[in-house]
Amino acid sequence: MAALPQPGAAAAPQRRLLDQLREQLRYRYYSLRTEEAYVHWVRAFVRWSGLRHPRQMGVAEVQAFLAWLATERQVSVSTHRQALAALLFLYQKVFGLQLPWMQEIDRPQRKPRLPVVLSVAEVRAVLALLDGTHAVLGQLLYGTGMRITEALQLRTKDVDSERGVIVVRDGKAGKDRVVMLPSSLAPALKAQLRRAHGLWLADARSGRGGVQMPDALERKYPRARASWSWFWVFPQASLSVDPRSGVERRHHLYDQTFQRDFKRAVQAAGITRPATPHTLRHAFATHLLQSGVDIRTVQKLLGHSDVSTTMIYTHVLEVAGGAVRSPLDALQAV
Length: 334
Known about the structure:
Layout: H1 7-27, H2 32-48, H3 59-73, H4 77-94, H5 101-104, H6 120-128, H7 132-144, H8 148-152, E1 159-160, E2 165-168, E3 177-180, H9 186-206, H10 217-220, E4 235-241, E5 248-252, H11 255-268, H12 277-290, H13 295-302, H14 307-310, H15 312-319, H16 327-333
Antiparallel strand pairs: 1-2, 2-3, 4-5
Helix pairs in contact: 1-2, 2-4, 3-4, 6-11, 7-12, 12-15
């Protein structure tokens, strides 16, 4: 049996491998989060194997690694599928291999779970406990059904106050869609835009690097990154270094910051269920359906490709709010 490579000798090839992985991910315009996740799983696979190069391994090692994740690490189904996707990307896109065993690996299926939905009173209580920019962001999530990443990446040009709409760019699966701008939120959102404009002016006067631009627009329109129209609706108060370009620039708010504040608000409101910012999206859909809005309209507002995904909210409505009467209640009424 061949001796395992020494840690020092394997360091350089490992760095080159991960550089190749990053290059292919960026070439295909994968998000930074996906890049970080795939790099994490490829690195974990290499370390699990005793620093063997993935080219020296195949289906047996991949399946053993995935089995180890499921049995020893007890990762969730979504995490397990993400690890598999990272390894398949490595073999198919980085190594250029199309091997039969890639299609034979078992893919665990997610079990359908009902979403956590807050009542109207609970949503009101949580939103009342948020302050400043986080209050505006929370109201925007509940008022439009946007995902938190969609709201944080919102640009000023995509808020159309005159028509009362917001354009969500590059949502899940790269799709654009239009959602309503709640009239009750318009004053607070205008105030948020004024705060953002102050930061934009400060950056412009100091000659900062502007904001991150999607795809190749930064090369095609080099001045656009410093324009007001492309500035974030929810900018970060301080500057940060772009992890890909190394340029110091203004980033949008971090989701972790809002998630922590939202969690504190949920606890202060006395809610014991595991509510997260994404719960506001569930509440948006459920409350629209409760008010009689057509499910196809809700599907479009949420950006679901298939109405069956939206149908999960009807399952919540079937028994919520007394829609179905328990036989025990009928028994007690006799």
